[in-house]
Each structure stands twice: as C-alpha cells, then as structure tokens.
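About this split. The held-out portion is used to measure sequence recovery: a designer receives only the structure tokens and must propose an amino acid at every position. Recovery is the fraction of positions where the proposal matches the reference. Here is one held-out target exactly as it appears in the evaluation file.
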C-alpha cells in the first residue's frame, strides 16, 4: 500500500490498516539495527529537527538514532536554550525553524494539542513525540510492535493497562490503537487516576481489582506515576500505591503463563513494579526500547514518501 500520511499526530487519525503497515515497515527496519554497520542511505539529504520542550531520554535518543541510521541530518533544539525563554511564542519559534527548511519536525510539548496546532501552519512533516496528557503515538506503536512480535498476533488479546491512566498519554494512545485492532483492553488504577466515562470514550473496561485486571491477561502495560502532571497528591504514599496497584509475581498468577510485562519507562522500581519482575524473563521492557528505534525509523521513512515506490498488495 501507499502510505499517504504527512504527519503522525495521534493514533486516532490512523486506520487499522495503516497501523499494521507501519508495524510491517518497522519489522523490516529492525534488521538494519542488527548489522555491523547500522546505516542505510534511505533519507540522505533530509533534515530532521528534534524539538523537545519536556525532558526525555528514551524517546529523544531513539528518534536521534533512527534519523542517523537512515542517514538523515538531525539537529536537536531544547526549549530551555531557545528563544522561547525570551518570550517568543511557540508559533514564531516553529516558523523560524521552518524558515531553515527542515523536512521533519519531531516535537514533544507539555501542552496537549501543540503538534496539531503547528501542523496547520508548517509545511514540513510533524511527528508527535508526546503532547501533554493527550497522545504519544510512537510509544503506542512500538508497544503494539512488541506485543505482535512476541504473541504472533495483534488481535483478540487481553491487555491490561495499570496505573496513572488520567495523566498518561501513553495509555490514551495504546487504548486507541489496541481497541482499533480488535483487542480487549482493561484499565485499573486508583479511582482518582481513572478518567470519567473512560469506558464510553475508549471502549475499554474498568476493573475493580488488580486480580480482575490481570485475569487471563496476555500483556500488562504498567504506567509511571506522573507526579509532574497531577497537580495534587492522588494517593497517600508510594508504599500504599505499591501495595494495591504495583505489579508483582503474586498478582500475576492468574494471567496467561506467557504474559508480557511492559513499561514505557522510566520505571519507578519497587513502586509500579518489583525490581525482580522488571528484570525477569517475562519482562519485555528492553525489547520495547530496541523496537522503538526501528519503529521511529519506519515513521521517518514513511512520512518522507518511502512507500510510494512500493507496489500495492
């Protein structure tokens, strides 16, 4: 098929077939990362700007490596060192960047909708690397890639998403994508961290207990407690949170024997998940990181028109 999306702003704007095509492309990119020389000339001459207004390690490094492995020129810009510190507006900063003729802008911003806003004004492609509480499409796509790789399917699975659902853009993007592909998604967390009417909005079920959420689960996506976005203490102590909402071997006993334990990172060990389980044979956290590079290579390639010369199925 021909991929026609100029921007990747959220999962909601992607069809099920487009998601599958992105994952297929990422699978082919993964082989490049196993080579002695991890570089191909697919995007030679293209310029990619990484504009991260929020701190990031995994996502930013992953996008940087993805750009370099496709031979693109990449430049990083942090809000702390940009003219935004002097009062320049987001739009003026973006227009300044565009005047330098980049091909792709990768953007992370604390304001929900910021990449969508800029997409109305900029000619270059925009990849959303996380906007506020709203969306984190590349993280959800790499999560789906990892599940499909391990389970050999991405439909009809029981997926539990547990933790700070309200503040998690990862949860929102995963719910959209996993449900769109025909999976059964359950969410669980402190009542103060479950959005109102989440069942109707995302077509998921809310579990009343950890045991119910994990029952017969094929994969469990644990979420980081996002204290920087909460604005108030939504639970009493980390110890209490770990006791009722943390993942351990005992509360996984009713899940599938080959259950996958996942986490977008960074992990608060001993709070969201026990250290032993995070490093266990059922944890695919490191595989998620590896797949993130291949997935983001696929996104760069596709929005640059990489599929246009391929024959349709």
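Reference sequence for scoring:
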């Amino acid at each position: 098929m021909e991929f026609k999306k100029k921007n990747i702003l959220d999962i909601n704007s992607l069809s099920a077939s487009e998601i599958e095509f992105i994952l297929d492309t990422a699978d082919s990119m993964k082989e490049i990362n196993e080579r002695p020389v991890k570089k191909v000339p697919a995007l030679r001459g293209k310029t990619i700007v990484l504009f991260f207004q929020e701190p990031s390690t995994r996502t930013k490094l992953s996008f940087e490596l993805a750009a370099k492995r496709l031979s693109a020129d990449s430049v990083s810009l942090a809000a702390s060192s940009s003219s935004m510190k002097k009062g320049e507006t987001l739009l003026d900063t973006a227009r300044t960047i565009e005047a330098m003729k980049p091909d792709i802008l990768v953007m992370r911003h604390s304001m929900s909708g910021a990449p969508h806003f800029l997409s109305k004004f900029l000619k270059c492609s925009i990849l959303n690397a996380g906007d506020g509480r709203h969306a984190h499409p590349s993280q959800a796509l790499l999560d789906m890639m990892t599940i499909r790789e391990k389970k050999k399917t991405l439909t009809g699975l029981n997926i539990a998403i547990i933790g700070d659902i309200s503040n998690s853009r990862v949860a929102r993007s995963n719910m959209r994508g996993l449900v769109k592909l025909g999976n059964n998604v359950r969410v669980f967390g402190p009542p103060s961290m479950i959005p109102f009417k989440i069942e109707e909005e995302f077509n998921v079920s809310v579990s009343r207990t950890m045991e119910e959420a994990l029952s017969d689960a094929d994969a469990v996506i644990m979420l980081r407690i996002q204290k920087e976005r909460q604005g108030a203490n939504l639970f009493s102590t980390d110890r209490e949170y770990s006791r009722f909402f943390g993942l351990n071997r005992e509360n996984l006993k009713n899940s599938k024997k080959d259950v996958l334990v996942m986490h977008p990172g960074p992990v608060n060990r001993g709070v969201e998940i026990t250290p032993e389980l995070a490093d266990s044979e059922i944890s695919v956290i490191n595989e998620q990181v590896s797949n993130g590079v291949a997935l983001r290579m696929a996104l760069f390639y596709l929005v640059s028109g990489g599929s246009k010369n391929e024959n349709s199925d």
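Annotator remark: The first helix runs from residue 16 to 30.
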